Amino acid sequence: MASISAFVDTSGFFALLARQDPAHAKACEWLKQARLSQRRSITTDYVLDETATLLRARGRPDLFQPFFDFISPSQALQIEWISSARFNETRKFFLRHRDHDYSFTDCASFVMMRQLGLTDALTTDRHFRQAGFIPILSTE
């Protein structure tokens, strides 16, 4: 089984799909390197939901099909589903960190990443750094 290169967050998917995104070139280079090294990426069903919603909110229905094509079953992307046990862990994390402005989806990502021992995230979201992870697309 191939090793995991990174967790893919909503902003990572958007950067891969939207050519005008400031992180597009960096995201595409990351994807190229991941493919060359035959490393897999991982995401959650919550992030997939959030990404589809973001595409709608940003007026990008033209990216719906490329997004769903990108996430279609492949050996390159593993989708982790938020089970009831993970949901309960996420709820606890969310409540414990109520002083942060983390979204519930972010908290689910953090819980899953910790459970799987992941450190790198294809994201521009500063919350990942605040939670102790490495945001690959960060400009900070």
Would you list the SSEs in sequence order as H and E?
A: EHHEHHEHHEHE
Count of helical regions? 7
What is the CATH topology assignment of the domain at 4-81 and 120-135? Rossmann fold
Q: Indicate the overall shape.
A: globular
CATH class (first level) name of the domain at 4-81 and 120-135 = Alpha Beta
- Give the strand content: 5-15%
Rg: 14 Å
Q: Helical residue percent?
A: 40-55%
Order of strands, main sheet, comes to 3-2-1-4-5
Would you report the number of β strands? 5
Structural class: alpha/beta
Assembly level: single chain
Furnish the topology, listing elements before pairings.
Blueprint: E1 4-8, H1 10-17, H2 24-36, E2 40-44, H3 45-57, H4 64-71, E3 77-80, H5 84-96, H6 104-116, E4 120-122, H7 126-130, E5 134-135
Parallel strand pairs: 1-2, 1-4, 2-3, 4-5
Helix pairs in contact: 1-2, 1-3, 5-6
